[in-house]
Amino acid sequence: MTEALIVSAVRTPIATSYKGSLRDTSPEELAAIVVREAAARSGLESDAFDDVILAESLAGGGDIARWAALASGMPRVPGQSVNRHCAGSLTAVGNAAASIRAGMDSAVIAGGTHSYSMNPTVTSRVPGQEEPVVGMRPSFPYYDGANDDVTLSVGWNVANEVDITREEMDAWAFRSHQRAVAAIDAGQFVDEIVPVPVTLDGNSFDFSVDEHPRRSSTPEKLAGLGPLHPEIDGFSITAGNASGVNDAASALAIVSDERARERGLTPLARIRAWGAVGVQPHLTGLGGVDAIPLVLKRAGIDVADVDLWEINEAFASVPVAAVKQLGIDEAKVNPWGSGCSLGHPIAASGGRMLATLAHELHRRGGGIAVASMCAAAGQGGAVVIEAV
C-alpha cells in the first residue's frame, strides 16, 4: 500500500490577536508564507505538487488555498479550502493523505491559517429586516442547550460531564504555561517556525518566537481570575483555563513513499491514520476525546503504544477529560504547552500540533504520536503519525 509521508512541516510563530505582532498580517498572507516554505523545504520543485489543501474558519468565503498557491509562485497547482472549524487542518492533512494513499496524488501541501485580528466580518440577511445582521452562518441548529458559547459547550459542560474541578483545570493551564516557556527557551520550536517579516508602528522586525505564553503565570493568579459566567452557580471556566485568541498558519508537505524514494527525500514521519467524529453540540469538547479511539483503531494500536500526545487545550477541560476517560499518561500530553499557553489559532492549530510532533519524532528516531482536538458544532478530529 502507498504510504503518505511528511517531508516538511512548518508554521509561523503564534501571535496574540488584535494587539500582537501579526495584528496587521492577513490570514492569506500567513498562508502564503507557510505554503512557500513547506514547498521549499520539501526537496521538490514548487510546481511538482498536485494540490494545496488549507483549512480556514470564519474567513467569509473565497478560496484561501488557491490564493496561497498563486502568491507562492505555484500557478499550476490548484487550491482547495476546507472547514471543520478547529479541527480543519487535521482534516486537510487527512484529505491529503487519503488522496496520496489512493494513488490519485503524489505530493500535496496541507495545513491551515487563521487570523482573528484580520478576519472578514460576515453579514447575512434576515427576512423582515432591512439591514443585514453581523455573524457567521450557524453550523448546527439550536436545540437541547446547544449554542455558540464555547465556554459552555467545550469548557463547562465537559467539566461537569467528566467531573473535572476548577482546581484541576487551573493546574493543567499553569503547567501548560510552564512547559511552553521551557520549550521556547530550549529552542524546541526552532526547526518548525518560519519567521514572519512585520512592520508595526514604523518598526520592522522578524517575528520568530511564540508570544502568547505567560512567564508570569502562577497558580495564585489563575485561582484569582473570575468565572466567565458569574451568573451560573459554581461556574469554573476562566480566561486562564481557556485557550488564547490567536493568529498563525501552518503547512505540511506530504508525499507518497514512491515519490520520496525517487527524489531521495528524508521524511519526518508517516501518516498512519486519521478521522473525525460527531458528538452532541452541547458537549463539543468531548469530540477531541472521542476521536482518539477511532484513529487508534484505524491505526491498529492502543493507548499504551503512543509515545506523544497533542490534545488541544481549547479549554483545559478537554485534555483533562481525555486523560481521565482514556487512561492516558498525562506526562506524555502536551509536553511543550498547547492552547492555554501557546494559543489556539483555530484552523492552523492542527497543523501546528502535527508539525511539532513530526519534528520531535524525527529527532527521537522513532515513536508514535497522536494529535487530537474538538471542533465547533459537536465535532472532533485526530491524526496518528509515526517516525520513519
TrEMBL record:
<keyword id="KW-0808">Transferase</keyword>
<dbReference type="GO" id="GO:0003985">
    <property type="term" value="F:acetyl-CoA C-acetyltransferase activity"/>
</dbReference>
<dbReference type="InterPro" id="IPR002155">
    <property type="entry name" value="Thiolase"/>
</dbReference>
<feature type="domain" description="Thiolase N-terminal">
    <location>
        <begin position="5"/>
        <end position="257"/>
    </location>
</feature>
<feature type="domain" description="Thiolase C-terminal">
    <location>
        <begin position="265"/>
        <end position="386"/>
    </location>
</feature>
<dbReference type="Pfam" id="PF00108">
    <property type="entry name" value="Thiolase_N"/>
</dbReference>
<dbReference type="Pfam" id="PF02803">
    <property type="entry name" value="Thiolase_C"/>
</dbReference>
<feature type="active site" description="Acyl-thioester intermediate">
    <location>
        <position position="86"/>
    </location>
</feature>
<dbReference type="InterPro" id="IPR020616">
    <property type="entry name" value="Thiolase_N"/>
</dbReference>
<comment type="similarity">
    <text>Belongs to the thiolase-like superfamily. Thiolase family.</text>
</comment>
<keyword id="KW-0012">Acyltransferase</keyword>
<dbReference type="InterPro" id="IPR020617">
    <property type="entry name" value="Thiolase_C"/>
</dbReference>
<feature type="active site" description="Proton acceptor">
    <location>
        <position position="344"/>
    </location>
</feature>
<feature type="active site" description="Proton acceptor">
    <location>
        <position position="374"/>
    </location>
</feature>
<dbReference type="InterPro" id="IPR020610">
    <property type="entry name" value="Thiolase_AS"/>
</dbReference>
<protein>
    <recommendedName>
        <fullName>Probable acetyl-CoA acetyltransferase</fullName>
        <ecNumber>2.3.1.9</ecNumber>
    </recommendedName>
</protein>
<dbReference type="InterPro" id="IPR016039">
    <property type="entry name" value="Thiolase-like"/>
</dbReference>
